């Protein structure tokens, strides 16, 4: 099966099994609620309520940042905001892990031509919850360690050879991309083979050594899907945001656009996830699946 056919099959699977999208959409709902709660608890919500246009017009984010900075300095809320941010981040991470487990199990069922349901996805996802958490933490720690290994020497060199912040940021971004490339199939491997996260990571390393070209192409296509989606929505935003604001001042329209963007980004992300699962199944010739 060609890569374009796999991508087409990914869209078809999402269309036939639309329930796969529900965990991602629920994750968006949870994120919005937590964000609003964070702003409300720290007394920052009033800034947006007074003039929400700062979120949408050109240069508005920098204006909003200055307002937030003045609030932080005047009210000495830095510690409070830091603690609540960490707390909400942990809650969002844990809730997101359960929804990820649910979504991946539903994708796995769809590729095995089994019935896809929210109840079954939730039940199977519960058994993978702690594995998903462990996997995400392991990959995060790995990225931090590699970033420090690359970033610290560059930071030290900047003391003698001038500012190298651009090189540091570039190095960190490349590390993030490289880790995601090598460990691209970490979730399909763990769920399909029902193995521990560490074993799945080790298998991903071996798989990358033997299938470097295949995995690189799949990673490139999945990355292109998300970049194309982001580029389209940002270009569309630049076209309509200033016009709508100056013409009517209807912030609710622009807010609706941002919500629509987030919904569609999660749809594209789910298509990308299915594409990655299909590509992994394709690497396993012993698995006779209709969709591959």
Give keywords.
mainly alpha, 292 residues, disordered C terminus
Terminal CA distance = 7 Å
- Average pLDDT confidence is 81
Question: What's the helix count?
Answer: 11
Q: Low-confidence runs (pLDDT<50, min 5 residues)?
A: 56-61, 287-292
Instruction: Kindly estimate the percentage of residues that lie in beta strands according to DSSP.
Output: under 5%
Task: Summarize the helix and strand pattern as letters.
Answer: HHHHHHHHHHH
Note the main sheet: none
Write down the overall geometry: globular
Give the count of structural domains. 1
Alpha-beta classification = mainly alpha
The overall strand count is 0
Structure summary:
The chain has helices at residues 3-16, 21-41, 45-50, 60-75, 78-111, 118-161, 165-182, 186-193, 197-210, 212-247, 251-282. The protein is mostly helical.
Explain what this protein looks like in three dimensions.
This protein has 292 residues and is mainly α. It has one domain (3-42, 77-282). The protein contains eleven helices and no strands. The protein starts with a helix and ends in a 10-residue tail after the last helix.
Layout of SSEs?
Blueprint: H1 3-16, H2 21-41, H3 45-50, H4 60-75, H5 78-111, H6 118-161, H7 165-182, H8 186-193, H9 197-210, H10 212-247, H11 251-282
């Amino acid at each position: 099966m060609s890569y374009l056919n796999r991508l087409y099959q990914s869209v078809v699977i999402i269309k036939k099994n639309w329930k796969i999208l529900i965990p991602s959409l629920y994750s968006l709902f949870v994120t919005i609620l937590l964000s609003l709660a964070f702003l409300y608890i720290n007394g920052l919500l009033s800034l947006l309520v007074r003039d929400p246009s700062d979120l949408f017009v050109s240069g508005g984010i920098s204006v909003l940042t200055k307002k937030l900075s003045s609030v932080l300095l005047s009210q000495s809320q830095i510690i409070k905001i830091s603690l609540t941010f960490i707390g909400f981040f942990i809650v969002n991470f844990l809730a997101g892990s359960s929804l990820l487990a649910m979504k991946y199990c539903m994708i796995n069922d769809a590729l095995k031509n089994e019935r896809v349901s929210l109840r079954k996805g939730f039940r199977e996802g519960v058994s993978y919850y702690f594995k998903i958490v462990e996997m995400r933490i392991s990959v995060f720690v790995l990225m931090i360690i590699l970033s420090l290994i690359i970033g610290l020497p560059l930071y030290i060199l900047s003391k003698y050879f001038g500012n190298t912040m651009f090189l540091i940021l570039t190095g960190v971004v490349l590390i993030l991309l490289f880790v995601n490339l090598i460990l691209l199939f970490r979730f399909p491997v763990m769920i399909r083979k029902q193995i521990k996260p560490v074993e799945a990571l080790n298998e991903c390393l071996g798989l990358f050594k033997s299938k470097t070209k295949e995995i690189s192409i799949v990673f490139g296509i999945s990355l292109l899907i998300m970049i194309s989606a982001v580029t389209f929505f940002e270009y569309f935003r630049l076209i309509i945001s200033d016009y709508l604001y100056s013409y009517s001042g209807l912030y609710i329209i622009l807010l609706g656009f941002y919500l629509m963007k987030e919904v569609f980004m999660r749809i594209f992300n789910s298509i990308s996830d299915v594409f990655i699962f299909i590509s992994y199944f394709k690497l396993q010739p012993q698995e006779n699946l209709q969709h591959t």
